[in-house]
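Example record

Each entry pairs one chain with its bound ligand, FE2/S2 (inorganic) cluster.
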Amino acid sequence: MADVKRRDFLGMALGGVAGVGAIAALVAMKKTWDPLPSVVSAGFTTVDVGGMQEGEMRDTQWRGKPVYILKKKSGDEILPARDFKLAGAYYCIGIKICTHLGCIPNWKANDGLFLCPCHGGQFTGDGINIEGTPPPRPFDIPPFAVKGDTTLILGESGKEYEAMLKASGNS
Ligand code: FES
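Structure tokens for the complex follow.
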């Protein structure tokens, strides 16, 4: 009788140890599968456009790519496929990588143009390629969402971004 009780106890003890081991293994596996926090946060960039003056450009990065945000001047032409409204002002946004062969164009504020140092490509402030220069299409636009009156979240697809896609016929 004492033997049976001892065997039950040993069985339960072994089962308990095995159960704890299995849970620890599952936790370890989940940690392996989950992306690192740095990878999760790398998908989004928060930009504060508060305090920007008309005609001012702000540079940032999204997923390692150079992104610009330009606050348009009152009286500038508004292009629904390239511009969005935030707190009563219009802005344009684009990935500043030349669509010819991938160089990084420079902003020439006096001319209101991006000039590509590699083969002379040109883009307007709205990111549209100038005809007769090598780039075959406008700058790409990163997905973004507007939060409040001054914040953009790059990497999130908000209604302003969706509206721009629709206006460009890409939705
Ligand atoms: Fe910009 Fe060629 S890479 S013009």
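The first strand starts at residue 45 and ends at 48.
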